[in-house]
Structure formats: structure tokens, C-alpha cells
């Protein structure tokens, strides 16, 4: 009979070398990982002891997130929410930088210039010559009053020699027929974009207006263009096949139809009051770029 001469370790005893029972502890390896290691050994590959997780899971573990973390689900939700808000802020910052570039191009005087004009070095320094002027008492008001009006209606402006804001359509010197038409539509007082935009357009200045949907932006460019066309027709009537005098480009068919109907409405009111006839046409392009032109005497 053979007897094993090696002493067996009993739980709680220390080994002869002086080590503890933790020295012989073998960590538990899940069955799935053991099978994977066995398959890799059969193929002659060396398997590392620690398998690497995916990049996303590893980041979550480092941050203390995931189903096995000690962080509560509410805290994890708060962390993920803060990450989403940070991404939104970064996108908003990117948009603000793009808007700054646009404003820089406007300041340089290149925003409303064609490629041909920029190639030839053509620069337009003077605004369009118009006969419209605001009432004298508004011109005599100090600049501090205009700043108070803009602050009251939350109007932000940028530029040189900005025209004064006007708080009523009558002070904008619009014809009585247009004032009656506005009243029929329930438009009594101008909106903030109209308070600053219509006087600016009537003065012949370049304008880029930004306002919310439904704030009355359409009237900002339709009323001045009607006034320009009416003034031109009174001074020197257009002959046959001349025109167009004004052109508006719209991004959609619906907006073009709406703009065309507004122009027709006010032109008809002016014609009923005995002013020269102003004719307008709606043109829908192949590239879904819609425009309409106001012209006279086809």
C-alpha cells in the first residue's frame, strides 16, 4: 500500500512556507469564458487572463455606470441627462459660430453681392435712393428715445446709421388705402419686426430680419415694395413689356402663393382709391424655387 507523504492542508491551517490560505485561492471563471478560452487554445492562440470589454462598456465601468455599478439608477439617469445637455450645448455653440461668420460677412459688405460682382470688385456703398422720409418730429428725437423703444419691444439691431423705429403705420406715411386694408385684417399696431423693419426698408437700406413665425415678416418687405412700385409708376409710367421692378424669392410654393395673395390684396385696394394699377405675377420654378414679380403694363 502506497501512502501519500505530502501533508494535506486543512482549512484554517497555514502552509509550511508561512503563507495563508488566500495564496492558493483560484478565482472563479464563468463557464462561457472557459469555453471561449478552450476553443482559442485548440486553435493555437494565446488568451489573456483579462478579456477586454467594448469601448462603451469600459467607459461606463470607469465612470461607475452600468447594471453592476454601485450607483443608483436615478443617479445614472442624471449623469446621462447631463451628457445629453452638454451635447446640445455644443451643437448650439456650433450654430452660434456659424451665425457669427454670417454676421462677419454682412459687416464686410459681401452678403448681398453676387459672385460676379465680387469677382469684378464691385462695391455698393450707397443705399437705394428713395423719396421716403420719416416724420420730422421723429427725426428730431434723440437717439436715447429710439434705444428705449427698441428695448421696450426687445428689438436687437446691428449696423451703422440705423433708421429710427416707428410705432404706428400712420407715421410710416402709408397710403390711406393700405391703412384701411390693414384695419380690415385686424392689424392695428405694428409688431416689433415691423416697427424697425418697415422704416429700414422704406429708407432703401439693406436689411436682414430675424423673427418668429407669425410675427408679420411678410409685410416688412411687401409694403415697401408696393410703395416703391407706386412711386415709380407715378413719376414715370412703365411702357409695354417693361419691368419687373420688384422681385421676391420664396423657399416654398405655399409661401409664394401667400405672398402673392397679400400683394394682390393691397394693390386692389390702391387701385380702388384711384392710384395707378400695379400688376403682379406668380412664377413657380422647376427647382421648387418659387418667386413672384411685380410689374406694370405687360
Automatic annotation (TrEMBL):
Disordered: region residues: 1-26, 45-75
Pfam families recorded: DEAD (PF00270)
Motif (Q motif): 167-195
Domain of life: Eukaryota
One Gene Ontology term, aspect cellular component: cytoplasm
UniProt feature, compositional bias: Basic and acidic residues: 1-14, 45-58
Keyword Iron-sulfur listed: no
Domain Helicase ATP-binding: 198-285
Single GO MF descriptor: ATP binding
Ranges where the DEAD-box RNA helicase Q domain occurs: 167-195
UniProt keyword annotations, A-Z: ATP-binding, Helicase, Hydrolase, Nucleotide-binding
GO biological process assignments: mRNA splicing, via spliceosome
Enzyme Commission code(s) on record: 3.6.4.13
Protein's recorded name: RNA helicase
Taxonomy of the source species: Eukaryota, Metazoa, Chordata, Craniata, Vertebrata
